[in-house]
Amino acid sequence: MDRRVRLLAGVGLVALVGAFGVVTSPSTVLDRLAWVVADPRRLTLALVAVAVVRPLFAWPTTLLAVVAGYGFGLGGFPLALGLVVVTSLPPYWVAGLGAGDGSVATAGRRLVDETGDVRSVAGSRLLPLPSDVVSAGAGIAGVPLRAFVLGTAIGEVPWVAAGVVAGDSFGTLSAASPSAVMDPRVVVGAAMLAALVFAGPTYRLLQE
User: Fold this and answer.
1) How far apart are CA 101 and CA 181, in angstroms?
2) Which of 96, 107, 163, 190 to pair with 73, CA 20 to 30 A apart?
3) CB under 8 Å to 162, separation ≥6 — which residues?
4) 129: DSSP letter
5) What is residue 21's predicted lDDT score, i.e. its pLDDT?
6) Residue 59's pLDDT is what?
7) Apex CA 34: angle with CA 183 and CA 80, to 5°?
8) How far apart are CA 66 and CA 203, in angstroms?
């Protein structure tokens, strides 16, 4: 595909996602999901549907963990983690299809080669960055699918756990907020783990 066509397609996709994000919001989704919480099967189907369309609206992935925690309690953790992995796949695939040989892609591939596929994805997930940015970066860097899935599942554990715990503590779904999982202790702890993951590979790359 021509580089100019890829660029125009990428700009159009970003504009479309931005438009959807303006029209809708996580709070609107929470209001719509409130009536299905009473039935576990309906709630599961609703969460799967939200996981599939979430990248189009640029909603935070923690929305899934919060709702799963509210509806299923702490037992909703495995479902929430699986849904976070699923909802990370579209940005990964789209970015991988449009990846070229630019400086950003080259730098990303060098870091992944030095760190390891699974380790690089897991470490990136631990950083307090938008999930879709990490997914797109892995796609551009050419991380294999299996390594991407495993690394995402490992790196998202702290964020999903925090979201499930937060959702379980809410009295009503309308009071839930994905931002509730951004506890400073969780953020600092995850960032420290990410620093440990990337410290060695980054030092070796800088030496080169």
Assistant:
1) 37
2) 190
3) 62, 65, 181, 183, 186
4) S
5) 47
6) 82
7) 50
8) 37
CB-facing half-sphere around the CA of 108: CA atoms within 13 A: 22
> What per-residue confidence (pLDDT) applies to 22?
43
Cβ atoms of 168 and 73 closer than 8 Å: yes
Q: What is the pLDDT of residue 88?
A: 94
Residue ranges, the chain, pLDDT below 50: 1-3, 5-23
Predicted TM-score (pTM) of the model is: 0.79
Residue 37 has which token pair?
């919480």
* Amino acid letter, residue 198: F
pLDDT at 10: 44
Joined together, the tokens standing for residue 172 give 């009503």
What contacts 132, CB < 8 A, 6 or more positions away?
55, 58, 88, 91
- Distance CA(180)–CA(166), nearest Å, equals 7
Distances (CA, A) of 121 to 142, 149, 156: 11, 9, 10
What is the reported pLDDT for 100? 59
Indicate the domain borders of the chain: 3-207
Q: What DSSP state is assigned to residue 35?
A: G
Asked whether 163 and 65 are in contact (CB, 8 A), the reply is yes
